[in-house]
C-alpha cells in the first residue's frame, strides 16, 4: 500500500469534494443558460473545458481504491466511470464536446444535461459521506497512543 487508509480516504474526500464543487458550477452554468443570462456558446465552452478533469479525477480515485485493495468501493465507482466514458465516446462527430452550443436547446438536451448533473450531485454526495465514514472508521482502528507494551503507556513524548 502506498498510503495509509486514513490518508487515502482523506484524499478521496478532497477529490469527491472538488468534483462536487465542479458539479455545482455545472448546475449554475446550465441554469444561467436556461434563464438566458449566458448564450449557448459561452455556456458550452465553459462546461466542455471541465469534462475531462472531472473524468480524470474520478478515474484517479478509482485507481487509488484499486491499488489499496478497497474492491467494493472501487466496484461501486466503476458504473459512474463507465457512464462518463460513454458520454464522451458517444459525442457525435462535428460536435464541439459533450455540451454542444448548436444542439443544447434541441430535443430537450438542456433538461437532460441538468438531470444528469443532479444525478451526479446525488451520487458524489453519497460517496462523500461514505468516504467520510470510512476515514473515521480507519482512524478509530489505529492506535492513537503508541504503546510499548499492552499495559504500559508511553510517558516520553
TrEMBL record:
Segments traversing the membrane: 7-28, 55-76, 117-140
Signal peptide boundaries: none
Topology term for the membrane: Multi-pass membrane protein
CC annotations in GO: membrane
UniProt keywords, alphabetically: Membrane, Transmembrane, Transmembrane helix
InterPro entries associated with the record: Cornichon
Listed Pfam families: Cornichon (PF03311)
One GO term of the biological process aspect: vesicle-mediated transport
Subcellular location per the Swiss-Prot or TrEMBL entry: Membrane
PANTHER family to which the protein is assigned, alphabetical: CORNICHON-RELATED
UniProt family annotation: Belongs to the cornichon family.
Protein name, per record: Protein cornichon homolog 4
Organism taxonomic ancestry: Eukaryota, Metazoa, Ecdysozoa, Arthropoda, Hexapoda
